[in-house]
Amino acid sequence: MRGVIFDGTAPRVVEDLEVRDPGPGEVLVRIAAAGLCHSDLSVVDGTIPFPLPAVLGHEGAGVVEEVGPGVTHVAPGDHVALSTLANCGTCADCARGRPTMCRAAIGRPTRPFRRGDERLYNFASNSAFAERTLVTAVQVVRIPEEIPLVSAALIGCAVLTGVGAVLNRAKVDRGESVVVIGSGGVGLNVLQGARIAGAFPVVAVDSNPAKEPLARRFGATHFVPSTDAVREILPTGADHAFECVGSTRLIRQAVDLLDRHGQAVLLGVPPADAEAAFRVSSMYLDKSILGCRYGSSRPQADIALYADLYRQGLLLLDELVSRTYPLEDFAKAADDAHHGRVARAVLTF
């Protein structure tokens, strides 16, 4: 079967990929569409260290093809969205409703794929850039068939991360001010999470003026080219500032933009050894810097919720898809994503 692999040299599409049959508690999914996230590109450029060779992709939707023993919540033929959380469901963090903190779901890739005699890792427990992928049952969430799979693919990362950061991690309340630095795929979902939460004003910050119409469509009430202009809108600072780029310079700016009792939420991914600085004295007015993994999500509940919000017209998915590409055009999709020409590129099978 076809898939996108990375072996440390350059990502490429291959046609001789194999995946093993599902075992107990596993599901084989035929992928229909997969979003191209900057995390995939970060594996390629080394920003995110990952064992190689690997099958890339982690934001997908498709149709269940086969289930292993013990899987009862989905069946062959079901339309599903996939998460990246292969959490155990039995540890203390899972029991507390914090599956993103489950140690079984962090840094434990498996190797269900094969090319000849070589075994390949699954990226983010998911590997959605393959015609078929094998995931744990907890990663598979059934969705209504009326939701286009091209749009549904984006729920599993961009939406869970961005909307979840607002609703689950920051817990933005009605009338609170929000600043979103970066209007890419995650940033747009932070904007719509703020809109859903009833935040006001919602200020999008991006140096690319072409992103303004979409940012406003998703929920921005203001759009500015740099953080310098934010103070004209919020003279005392913001209740919440979300950094969605992964720049230590912008992380500092997010912290500096906070009002009293404000929160800076870090969503962008800088290099693993990056260090950021801030003025300690500025933090004593009850300000906080929050890390956020995967929108502090509970995928089984949150994916179902976001699917319902989409059906009610409250959550935008179709508008996130800037362009679709056949799998063979992965290189073009990656180049468009790298240069910011698309909010989200989606590969189709």
**How many domain units?**
2
> How many strand elements?
19
Query: Can you tell me the CATH superfamily of the largest domain?
Result: Medium-chain alcohol dehydrogenases, catalytic domain
| Uncertain spans | none
Structural classification: alpha/beta
CATH architecture of the largest domain: Alpha-Beta Complex
- Range of helix content: 10-25%
Global morphology: globular
* Backbone CA Rg: 20 Å
CATH class of the largest domain: Alpha Beta
Helix and strand pattern: EEEEHEEEHEEEEHHEHEHEHEHEEHEHE
| Fraction of residues in β-strands | 25-35%
Number of contiguous helices? 10
Annotated CATH topology of the largest domain: Quinone Oxidoreductase, Chain A, domain 1
Q: How many strands, which pairing sense, and closed or not: the largest β-sheet? A: 7 strands, mixed
Mean pLDDT: 96
How far apart are the first and last residues' alpha carbons, in Å?
A: 11 Å
Characteristics:
349 residues; alpha/beta; Quinone Oxidoreductase, Chain A, domain 1; Rossmann fold; 2 domains; 10 helices; globular
Can you lay out the helices and strands and say which pair or pack?
Layout: E1 3-6, E2 12-14, E3 18-19, E4 26-36, H1 38-45, E5 54-55, E6 60-67, E7 79-82, H2 92-95, E8 113-115, E9 118-122, E10 132-136, E11 140-142, H3 149-152, H4 158-170, E12 178-181, H5 185-197, E13 202-205, H6 212-218, E14 222-224, H7 230-233, E15 238-243, H8 248-256, E16 258-266, E17 288-291, H9 299-311, E18 323-326, H10 330-338, E19 345-348
Parallel strand pairs: 5-9, 12-13, 12-15, 13-14, 15-16, 16-17, 18-19
Antiparallel strand pairs: 1-2, 1-5, 3-8, 4-6, 4-10, 4-19, 6-7, 7-11, 8-9
